Amino acid sequence: MASVQVTKDFPQGGIAHMRLDSREDFELFAKSVAGFRQDVGLTVAFARSLEHIFAKAYEALFAQYRVHEFFATNTEVDAGAMSYTYRMLERIGQAAVIDSTGTARNLPAIDVGAQEWQQPVITLGASYNFTRINQLSGAMMNFSIEAEKAKATREAFEQLEEQIYCTGLNATMGVVGVTTAPGVATVTQVSTGTWISQILTGLGTAPLTSTLVAALGSDLLKMKFQVGSLSLGRHRATNCLLPTNLYFALDIVPESPLFNSKTLLTWLEELTGLDIDDWAVLNSAGLVAGSPLSLAAVSGGNPQQNTRVMVYEKSPEVVQLIQVQPFVQLAPQMVGLNVEVPCYSRIGGAMAIRPLGAVILDGI
User: Fold this and answer.
1) Of 86, 104, 185, 221, which has the highest C-beta tally within 10 A?
2) Which whole-number Å values give the CA distances from 213 to 148, 254, 297, 335, in the listed order?
3) pLDDT at residue 79 in the model
C-alpha cells in the first residue's frame, strides 16, 4: 500500500486524529490512497448467522413412573374425603367332634368378628407460573412454555406419589406404602454380603461358581417360601421387584458363559418362577445399606444404597393403591402480566388388604 502523505487538507494531528465514520474524513483518506477498498478483510456474515440451531428441544429424563404397573389402583374414595376405612371379617371358633347319639347340647359356637383400619387422605400441591412475555417469547421460538411447565409439574407430582406409594409417610402423616404396611413381613438374607459384592467376587474367579449363583437364588426362594408359608398356602408369590442397580447387574452378568447364554436374571426367573422387574424407587427404600449403584466396589464415588427387594402376589386382594383425586390443574390465575396455575392431587397411600401376600428384604 502506498504511503500516505499528510497534506494541509487533513485535520490537525494527521491521520491519527481522523474519524473514518465521518463521511468527509473518509472520502479524504480514500482519495489519498490509491486502490483503497473499504470491504477488504471484512465479511458479510455475523458470527451467529453461521450457527445451526436444532429445531427440537431435548428434555432430561427421570426415573419412570411405574407404580400403577405393579399394583391395582382403587378409585372408590370420594374426592372430598379426609380419611378412608376398610373392614375385615374373621371367623371365630372351631367345630368339634360330638357324641355319636347326636344329642350333644354344648355345641361349639361359631361366630364372625370384624376389624377395621383407618388411614388419612393427604393432599399434594404445587403450582407453575409464567408471564405473558414468556408466552410471546416462546411463540417466537415455536416453543410452548406453559405446556412444558405443566408437564414438569405433573412429573413432580408423579415422583412424590411414587415414593409415598412405596414407603408411605408413616412417621409424620400415618400413611403407609406397599412395603411398609402393617403385616408385610421382613425376611432375613440367606446369602452373605450384598449381591453386587458377591457378583464382583464371582467375576474375579470367572466363570461364576454354582455356589455363588445358588446363593443369589436362595434369597428370592426364601422370600417366595415365606409368602406361601405365612399365609398357610392362601397366597402364591408371582412377582419380584428389584432396585435398578440389582436388576441391571443381573441382566448383564452371564450365569454360565461356558455352557449357555443365559444371564443371572433369566436364570433367577426360571428358578423361582417369579416375574422379575425393576422399580427405581426401591434404590433408597430400605433401612439397611446394600449394594452400590455401579457394578464396582464401594467407594466415595460409588456409595452403598439402601436397597429393598419385594416379592408379592400380584392381586387386588393383596394390596391396592388408593387414588382419591388424580392430578388436577385449576384455572390460571392472572395478576398483572403474571399467570399462576395451582395444581393438586389426593392419595391415601396403600391399602394392604392381605399383607401376608407380600414380603420385603433390605440391604442386599
Assistant:
1) 221
2) 46, 10, 19, 64
3) 93
H/E element holding 119? strand 111-120
For residues 263-272, average pLDDT: 92
Give the torsion sign (CA, 66, 69, 74, 79).
positive
Ramachandran quadrant class, 343 (left: phi over 0; alpha: psi -120 to 50; beta: rest): beta
Confirm if 161 and 343 have CB atoms less than 8 A apart. Answer: no
| CA separation for the pair 243, 281 (Å, rounded) | 7
Three cell numbers written together for 71: 399394583
Alpha carbon distance 275, 287 (integer Å): 25
Task: Return d(Cα 216, Cα 189) in angstroms, integer.
Answer: 10
Chain-wide mean pLDDT for the chain?
A: 85
The predicted pLDDT at position 325 comes to: 95
Query: Which residues lie below 8 Å from residue 4, measured CB to CB, with a gap of 6+?
Result: 15, 29, 32, 33
Q: In this predicted model, what pLDDT tens digit does every residue of 181-220 receive, in sequence order?
A: 989 999 999 999 999 999 888 887 766 777 888 889 999 9
What pLDDT shows up at residue 128? 94
Choose among 267, 270, 237, 273: nearest CA to 250: 267
What is the Cα–Cα distance from 196 to 303, expressed in whole angstroms?
12
